[in-house]
Amino acid sequence: MDIKLPQSIETYFRAANAHDSQSLADCFTEEAVVHDEGKVYRGLAAIKEWNETTSKKYALTLEVISATQENGETVVTAQASGNFEGSPAAIDFYFVVTNQKITALRCG
Q1: Interatomic CA distance for residues 102 and 11, integer angstroms
Q2: Which of 5, 16, 21, 40 could link 52 by a cystine bridge, Cβ 3.0 to 4.6 Å?
Q3: What is residue 38's predicted lDDT score, i.e. its pLDDT?
Q4: Which residues of the chain register pLDDT less than 70?
């Protein structure tokens, strides 16, 4: 990745592309929250399950295009490719990172 991101976010994208749900979940705090496709996932077990389900459903791969800081969030735009209508598509990921761990993620 050419774009400098916090380590936990870099690891998130590597794990997502490797379809490694455990490594992806390890990027988050115990009480982290993910908002995706109108649903909310709270805690590491729910986040791991969300990633496993999403990975199988969409066979998703993500290529980081850009990253900015806005209102305390790291906003990463990634080119998403997979088994979904409109693929490939640019998707924004809104991360909140505290003490090197992701505490919140909103996709969309």
Answers
A1: 11
A2: 21
A3: 96
A4: 1-2
CATH code, residues 7-107? 3.10.450.50
Q: Is 24 in contact with 50 (CB distance < 8 Å)? A: no
pLDDT value of residue 2? 55
Per-domain residue ranges for the chain? Answer: 7-107
DSSP state of 48: H
The predicted structure's pLDDT at residue 4: 84
From edge to edge, which strands make up the β-sheet containing 39-42? 39-42, 28-36, 101-107, 89-98, 73-81, 61-70
- Residue 23 φ/ψ, nearest 5 degrees: -65, -35
Burial class (CB in 10 A: 0-12, 13-18, 19+), 38: exposed
Its pTM stands at: 0.93
